[in-house]
Amino acid sequence: METLTSKITQILEASFPEAQVNVGPMRGASDDHLEIKVSSTIFEGLGLLEQHQKVMDVLKKEFNQDLHAVRIKTSTPTKE
Amino acid sequence: MSEENNPFKIANPTVDAQKVELSSNEIPPGFDEADTLKRIEKIIASSKVVVFMKGNSFFPQCGFSKNTVGMIQHHNVEFKTYDILRDPELRMALKEYSNWPTFPQVFVNQKMIGGNDIMMELFQSGELLKALT
């Protein structure tokens, strides 16, 4: 069975082909809580809200299904 | 796992939401009878800082909402809350309005500044007070 982690990873990798995507469980929370790290040049010049919005936007549908909450960390490759 | 049995949901789920008392800084549900978009606009205009959350400041119904409220209280900033659990229609409409699928959502000067993650980042970097004023 496909896990939520791999499903979300696939969605993010498909949406942000050049990004480095890392998805894992949120510590101390249930399976429907995930930690998401996305590092991509598309975030350059954007504020924190816009960066997170880009990630949230592609996960919208999942929040109506089996995803409850995410913790997002966005970065640009140069910023690291 | 469903929303019902996750550990971040802290309140007793058998409590009837309608019977929970309003906290003093809470905008009552159903505030204004106009259409949903107008209601959202009125709510976010009713205070400089407005938090759309699960529950209220006295009885937050989710760990993330509780955390966000706690950070604002830490800075002694006045704010109002709106309980989206008691208003499913507004809850759905707000997700579209702010292009953000989860709660809490924090609005300052009628603009969404983020959810709990962004609040945490602002808090930790010492920028939250500035963002709230």
Backbone structural class of chain A: alpha+beta
> Strands across the major sheet of chain B, in which order?
2-1-3-4
Share of residues in helices of chain A: 25-40%
Q: What is the fold-level CATH name, i.e. the topology of chain B?
A: Glutaredoxin
Instruction: Please name the fourth-level CATH homologous superfamily of chain A.
Output: BolA-like
Query: How are helices and strands ordered from N to C of chain A?
Result: HEEHE
Biggest interface between protein chains, with counts per chain? A-B, 21 and 20 residues
Indicate the proportion of strand residues of chain B: 5-15%
Global mean pLDDT of chain B: 86
Distance from N terminus to C terminus of chain A (CA atoms, Å) equals: 35 Å
- CATH architecture grouping of chain A: 2-Layer Sandwich
Number of helices of chain B: 5
Low-confidence stretches of chain B: 1-5
Account of the protein in words:
The complex is a heterodimer of chains A (80) and B (133). Chain A has one domain: BolA-like (GMP Synthetase, Chain A, domain 3, 2-Layer Sandwich), CATH 3.30.300.90. Helix content of chain A is 35%, strand content 25%. Chain A contains 2 helices and 3 strands. Chain A has helices spanning 4-15, 48-63, and strands at 20-25, 33-39, 69-75. Chain A has a 3-stranded mixed sheet with strand order 1-2-3, with helices on one face. In chain A, helix 1 crosses helix 2 (48-63). Chain A is globular, with a radius of gyration of 12 Å. With 133 residues, chain B is of the alpha+beta class. Chain B has a single domain, classed as Glutaredoxin (3-Layer(aba) Sandwich). Helix content of chain B is 35%, strand content 13%. Chain B has helices at 36-45, 63-74, 88-97, 116-124, 128-132; strands at residues 49-53, 80-83, 105-108, 111-114. Chain B has a 4-stranded mixed sheet with strand order 2-1-3-4, with helices on both faces.
